[in-house]
Amino acid sequence: MFFSPRAGQLAGLLALLLSTTQLQAEGLPQVPSTPKNLIIMVGDGMGPAYTSAYRLYMDDPATEEVEETVFNRLLVGNASTFPARESGYVTDSAAAATALSCGIKTYNGAIGVDSQKQPVPTLLERAKQAGLSTGVAVTSQVNHATPAAFLSHSESRQSYDELAQSYLATDAEVILGGGQKYFPESLRDKFRAKGYQVLTQMDALEQVNKPDVLGLFADIHLPWVQDEPEADRLATLTRKSLELLSQNNKGFVLLVEGSMIDWAGHGNDIGAAMGEMHGFANAVEVAEQFVRQHPDTLLVVTADHSTGGLTIGANSEYRWNPEAIRGMTATAESIAKQAIATDQWQQAVTTGLGFTPSQQEWLQLDQARMQGQDAMTKALRTTVNSHSNTGWTTGGHTGVDVQVFAAGAGSGLFRGHQDNTDIANKLASLLPSPTPAKVQ
Ligand SMILES: [Zn+2]
How far is the CA of 306 from the centre of ligand 1 (A)? Predict the structure, then answer.
């Protein structure tokens, strides 16, 4: 700002904000625009190798160029992710989400609390205090680490039932994802008593035209995108969230998470990872479109950490074959289920994978099939990794920096390198001041 507003100058400040065009005409510096709405999207586990792999996975091999993705378009910077000192250098999703929401470093497992286990205001709580609407839309259970750290507080991410109970007091207008298991009928009744529509079927969401809504569309997590790509669930949830939340003239803050990119990474499952990336990319495109139509909105997309040590081209070979992933018609998990249930199992495997395994691989798959679902799933993932030449270094997380993507009002703030806590603090700085308590 080129002047410092004092009390009494507020009206003047407002007039200035409203007459940017006039200011430009007079050759004065443009007043920075602050967004009315914030959309923060987290690709859980989506380290840089995931967006690179996704670009190649989506590439049309018939054309010379490698087509750009939404991630190319929106890239602005990167972020470090390490947790509080006591948890070393590699974060879990709870500490990272607390950093992105509350702007503090904390220990792995912490949900919206600091190292002394004291609650710290979350981004969505601050937004509520400022009179904005809030919402979360995720593919995991709604009370999983990332959404929980934007809505609530707990010493442990494992306290699923407590976290579900605590959501009653958040007054979030939109809560969409999985997790029926954690919301027994008695708890759903309490939400209904507060005026929420409680849904368990995605189809019913279409009819919802006003907040508040609690949508729990699976017992725990939503189905894998690779098993039902046409469903495009996260994009649908994002679109509906934006439609409902934008009814508040004061603005809103929405958290969207592609939760299961991380789970695919833990399983070293490149097929499921690319499926979840596609579902997340489609949701980001929905948000990008919203920002184009509502330039007073800020979109920030990032990851909480990277998972699995994904490598594009492994085994000292200069080769990566996404076609071995593109031909898959289901997740390794689903193919394994089918292969175990039928005597024509080799047929099920070939159809599911979209390629024929080698002689050696058939032997390994046959052995794994005898050992059951888990072993068969793992053997199928190994086969796909080998055919695509995908590498993995761990079944856990890694400490590499993640990318930051942004568009819309205030997006320039996120350029260059920053820490994950900086992202939260920048977002919080864009919120209006808290509104005084309502006179009843
Ligand atoms: Zn994880």
Answer: 8
Predicted confidence at residue 17, as pLDDT, reads 44
Residue with tokens 């950490």: 305
- Mean pLDDT for the chain overall: 93
Q: Which residues pair with 311 in a beta bridge?
A: 391
Spatial CA neighbour of 155 closest among 101, 212, 203, 115: 115
Q: Which amino acid would we find at residue 164?
A: A
> Which residue's entry shows tokens 């098993």?
227
Find the 32 Cα to ligand 1 centroid distance in Å.
Answer: 37
Alpha-carbon distance of 39 to 284, in angstroms, equals: 10
As a whole number of angstroms, the distance between CA 268 and CA 122 comes to: 32
Average pLDDT, integer, range 154-182: 97
Find the catalytic residue in 4, 80, 93, 115: 93
pLDDT of residue 437: 59
**Going from the N-terminus, what domains does the chain have, and what CATH number goes with each?**
37-311+394-429 (3.40.720.10), 322-388 (1.10.60.40)
Expressed in angstroms and rounded, the spacing between residue 386 Cα and the centre of ligand 1 is: 23
Active site residue 93: yes
User: What integer is the mean pLDDT of 299-311?
Assistant: 98
Tokens 């994802």 belong to: 177
Which of the four pLDDT bands, split at 50, 70 and 90, describes residue 5?
A: very low
Of the chain, the percentage scoring pLDDT greater than 90 comes to 90
Q: Please, are residues 272 and 248 in contact by the beta-carbon 8 Å criterion?
A: no
Asked if residue 381 lies in contact with residue 332, where contact means CB atoms within 8 angstroms, the answer is yes
Ligand 1 centre distance from Cα of residue 203 (Å): 30
Query: What does the pLDDT read at residue 25?
Result: 43
Give, for 79, the enclosing helix (H) or strand (E).
strand 75-80
Question: Is the pLDDT assigned to residue 23 strictly greater than 60?
Answer: no
